[in-house]
Specification:
Number of strands: 14
Number of domains: 1
Low-confidence stretches: 1-5, 20-55, 271-287
Number of helices: 4
Shape: globular
Distance between the termini: 32 Å
Order of helices and strands: HHEEHEEEHEEEEEEEEE
Radius of gyration: 19 Å
Strand content: 35-45%
Amino acid sequence: MCARSWNRRDLRTVAERMHQIQSFFAASVLVGLIAAPARPSQRTGAGPEASQLTSVRRTPNEELTAEEIFQKLLDHNRRREARLQGYSEVRTYVVTNRNGEVHAEETVRMEYRAPDTKSFATIREEGSRFIRGRVFKGLMDSEVEAAAGRSHRDSSITPTNYVFYPRGIEDTEECQCFVVQAVPRRKDKYLFEGTIWIDAHDFAIVKIAGHPARNPSFWIKRADFVRSYQKIGEFWLPLKDQTSVEVRIFGDKEFTIDHSHYVIDGAETSGSHVHGAAQGGAAFGARNGSD
């Protein structure tokens, strides 16, 4: 059940504060972290900073630089996206406080049709209509606009926006990953600073963890996010988004989006039946050649 201890005015205020950071989530993490296919400017190198970085070990006798990793990532994303004609999924958006009390929750079905159409239909909703209207609906509207090419912000994870620093190779239970630190080239609230895990075989993003490059609002003291992906067939699709926000006066809030019940090419698959990405949380609908 949703929490009843907050009055209408409190919930309206929290919704307004969360709406102020919603634009960051929608633009930089939840919608467009990877732009595929890449524009010509995104195929260029990262500049002198990247060329001086330490290389990541590929095999005992070979090395792979950050620039090479992300070029391969973009190339693989373009090929995956070209093969993905459409899919649907069930998403559950939830905002809670530090005690786990639910302020708002909404379950929707999202459908994607290549190359640029997304639509949302509500299955169930409860809790604060302010949060559902300002935060959840705002995110969905922004995602529809970005898919249709109506968003003019370039927040893609490319050398145009970031300098990449290889941090080595990490073996998880599911796969071997390149670990790369992403440092934004400018203090922009639509960019982030953090760490990216990239599958060393598929060259697909497995997990992203970070925080906004610039605080999106005076009211937000802290905003940290994690997004994880899962592999369904040949495609890497979002598994879970988890954002922790510290709002002045109102304390800590948790915003999660769970992705499940994918249907691709008529084959329905749940997360437990696929290659799941790191389970410790989720970074955000970034395009992984898939969404």
